[in-house]
Amino acid sequence: MPTSLEVADIFRRHGDAYRRAHDGRLGRVERRVMSAIELCRTAELGGHREVCTSCGLVRCAYNSCRNRHCPKCQGQARAEWLAARQAELLPVPYFHVVFTLPAPVAEIAFQNKETVYAILFRAAAETLRRIAADPKHLGAELGVIEPAADEATRSPFDRCPDCGGAMFILDAMPRPQRSCSSAAWHDSS
Predict the structure, then answer these.
(1) 147 touches 159 (CB < 8 A)
(2) 8 Cβ contact partners less than 8 Å away, ≥ 6 residues apart
(3) Please, what's the b/e burial string for 63-92 (b: 16 or more CB within 10 A of its CB; e: otherwise)?
(4) pTM of model > 0.90
(5) Alpha helices in 24-159 (DSSP H)
(6) Helices 28-39 + 7-21 axis angle, to 10
(7) Are residue 103 and residue 72 in the same domain, yes or no?
(8) Is residue 185 within 8 Å of residue 52, measured between CB atoms?
């Protein structure tokens, strides 16, 4: 079975050319992230031996870069965060509603993010609540999830996760089970 392509593979193959092409626009932080991802789990960062407690097989495991932007290093943390958020969800469908600003207003928003996005969020929330309250549409009260503080000033549109619980009642969806195949491995160095 062929291995899947990873971000590190792309950076290793095209990273130098990309850095040269974007020399004046690529900052120190971005360059360090690219370098960390390129070196992640390679011999350049060192490694250690792992031994399977079941069969005694020994394998070499290279050290990770531990960069917070690395998709390989943060895979487990991302999976745990997603599982925790999934556990908080109601067993109903959710809808992703996006309110976009016209380009001229978006330009103003980039200069006055906190104020414009606060207005956008209030308008979007009120719009969703009014439509949901209308008996022709839903005839129900709607709760709107507020964006996190860092998300509220990031982009010229408002993303509103909208719970469809007032519309549908479904059986609880089964949660994916974690594979325990890696449990038999331990660091022997």
Answers:
(1) yes
(2) 37, 38, 40, 41, 72
(3) ebbebeebeebeeeeeeeeeeeeeeeeeee
(4) no
(5) 28-39, 75-88, 103-111, 113-133
(6) 150
(7) no
(8) yes
Name the residue among 109, 103, 137, 138 with its Cα closest to residue 121: 109
Among 39, 61, 85, the domain boundary falls at 85
Q: How far apart are CA 120 and CA 118, in angstroms?
A: 5
Two tokens, residue 171: 């059986």
179 in any annotated domain: no
Instruction: Tell me whether residue 108 is in a domain.
Output: yes
Say yes or no: 130 and 72 in one domain.
Answer: no
Question: What are the tokens at 103?
Answer: 């380009």
Give 140-149 contacts, CB < 8 A, sequence gap 24+.
140/166, 140/167, 141/166, 142/166, 146/121, 147/121
What whole-number distance in Å separates Cα of residue 7 and Cα of residue 38? 8
Question: pLDDT tens digits, the chain, 189 residues: what are they?
Answer: 556 899 999 999 999 999 999 988 888 999 999 999 999 999 999 999 999 898 989 999 999 999 989 998 888 888 898 899 889 887 777 777 777 888 888 888 878 888 888 888 888 888 888 888 888 877 777 766 655 544 444 454 555 555 554 433 233 333 333 333 444 444 444
